[in-house]
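Example 3.2
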Amino acid sequence: MLRYRNGEVRAFEQLYGRHKGPLFRFMLRQCGQRAVAEELFQDVWTNLIRGRDRYRVRAKFTTLLYRMARNRLIDYRRSATANPGHDHAAAKEPAETVAVGPGPQDRLETERMGARLRTLIASLPADQRDAFLLREEAGLRLEQIADVTGVGTETVKSRLRYAVAKLKQALSEDS
């Protein structure tokens, strides 16, 4: 980011290439709507570009990027709450699935489990969902999640522990 701030355009291409996939998946899992996730994703990168001259190293770049993404998602949720005329929940789309396994039965079961897991993640309380997705989708460490969410690492640990316990409990009930 320092190289990009100092005018090296190629450095931005490297940043974007390295972080676009995990960041988009994080945003998609948070809002559940591909079109909205794409718009918010673009907003985050646009804001990063606009603020490049003001960039100062205070934490890892990923911490900054996911803090920006989380803040943009919070703004979106607030505006969705303020605009009750639009049924955001009805517009939810399933996230992409990855079919694995040798046969159609395996693919069908994998898709079914993936859809169930996405539904369960979406039903987690927002704080637990944030911590879980920042860990699993973005690959952030506890300290980074704490920086992004503005809480202590012990709080992050608790949120992750509760999220995983709820997911395991719900999945075991499905079996």
